[in-house]
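QA checklist item 7 of 12: single-chain prediction sanity check.
[x] sequence parsed
[x] length recorded as 337
[x] structure emitted
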Amino acid sequence: MNDLEWIQRILAHEDTSPVPYNFMFSPPAERIAKEHYGDDLEGALGLPIRMSGPASIKPLYASPAEFGNTVTDEFGVVWSTSDIDRGSPIEPCLRGTSLNDYTFPEPGRTYRFEGLKEWCESQKGHYRILWVGDLWERATFMCGMESILLDVALHPAFVEELLERLAEYILETLRIVLHTCDFEGIAVSDDYGTQNGMIISPSSWRSLVRPSLARIYALAKSHGRTVLHHSCGDIVPIIGDLIDLGLDILHPIQPEAMDVALLKQEFGAHVTLCGGIPTQTLLVQEGPGAVRREVKRLKRTLGQGGGYILEPGITIQADVPAENIFAMVDEARTPRL
């Protein structure tokens, strides 16, 4: 059974051993891991899922040494840069409630896809997922969180138009990769949750976000691709909606925000859950022994019946001690008994 078959069996909810795992590292955590396991982390850790996607002017992690204190993305949003995380959007590109004077970036720009076809070919045998964009999350960057939440209440037609235009950008990106690249699934990054509930009400999400998101899911599914959706926080009220749209992998389930055992009980037969390792408590406050015990418990409980990929509840951050990173990785790679 190669990596591709491994993940396909998990998505089909077949009970397999070992439980598959995935890890994402912030730059400081990645340096620690590479010093211990080697520069080829994906190979050294045997990650069955491999991820890539179209490039951006502003990479996910833009270091001040390379980009200066700020960097502007394709959409015109100004970001702070950071050595430890992705930085923050500090200057929106949209002011007011009209798109008449705004020009959207061209999704087909050559630089976005350079080397992507070759990367897909080099990763055959693994489960290849391409990140194709963000929808509501991108709108919050472009307008600012406070402004767009006011617009949801006061100018919903503007929000709807913005999301539809962003969906077109993502759809064209998806059409290009479907035409040029060989891969198994897409990933959409679109945060809807906080620690204690949703950023946007479920009813507003259904009226404004869901229609555009449905178009993205539908295009991927019509071409036989699976869909991974990334949203941090508590999004329990809309998980059923995402499943109805065709969601395959929900990422990352955060135990600080949702009861992961209840997620398994209520939704586990219909979607693959990815995440579950506490990043705000366990990984930063406990020792390696506790980390190993929790990883083992998650594999035994959430892994039962397939439909589960072990992963931290969010990208491994700079505050996680090295010994806890190693304990988590090593226990994840230990076959379940």
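[x] summary fact logged: The chain has one domain: 3-60+95-332.
[ ] second reviewer sign-off
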